[in-house]
Amino acid sequence: MKSVDIAGRSIGPDAPPFVIAELSGNHNGDRNRALQLIDAAADAGVDAVKLQTYTADTITLDHDGPGFLIDEGPWAGRTLHDLYQEAHTPWAWHEAMFARGRDRGLTVFSTPFDATAVDLLESLAAPAYKIASFEIVDLQLIQRVAAAGRPLIISTGMASLDEIADAVAAAQDGGATGVILLHCISGYPTPIAEANLRRIDLLAATFDCPIGLSDHTLGTDVAVAAVARGACLVEKHVTLNRSDGGPDAAFSLEPEELACLVEGARNAYASLGRADYGRTGSETGNVMFRRSLYAVRDVAPGEAFTEHNVRSIRPGYGLAPRHLPRVLQSHAAQALRRGTPLSEADLEGAE
Question: Strand, helix or coil at 153?
Answer without folding.
Answer: strand
